[in-house]
Amino acid sequence: EVNVLQELSLQVSERNNSFVTVEGSRCLVIRVGQYSTLTLPLQQIFSDRFADEFSLLVQLRSLQREEHSVFTMLSPDSRIMLQIRISAYAIIFIGTQLRHYEFPVSGLCDGEWHRVAFSVSTTHLVLYVDCLQLEIVDWVNHGLEIGTDGLLMVGGILEGFETPFEGELRQLTFLLDDPEAAQQHCSHYPPRCSNAAYKPPRSPRQTLRLLELVHRQENLL
Its domain of life (predicted)? Predict the structure, then answer.
């Protein structure tokens, strides 16, 4: 299980137009401003391997109706290996080998929390929204062949005409070698919302900020 938000939280700051909050259940939430770009080397989170089969679990909240990229995984030569795009009317899955799948979905840009999960196996792709299966498609070519020597990017744009993501993320998790986990998003894999869920940030200043947020929330309960 790879918790991408946990790693991203280490670089969040008001300087890059993003910040961390802690919700009532002590869930870590990253607010991504429209002109914020958060990046991670893929090797930092996936080491030397990315599985051909996996589940991708996302919880997000946004009022942004224009099509935008929630996150992107780029190769060293800036090719898209995996990208999830959302608009007021669709969810778009883009992968290697020119795979581009657009699923009609409405209601995701209403300012409420929504769960989006993908089950990726060597034979098919399945989309779940708010824990209901919406669509399944068969692969033409087996395996996405995603490497780990590139970059993961949340927010930002690749082309000048694009609209950058603006909203909040409560979960961005990969479960490698487990394509069935997406089906159990609500029952088995909600975001972890306790102190034990977070690794201490490497920055002392960031550590103090997170501890202050948790302490402040506890005083309000």
Answer: Eukaryota
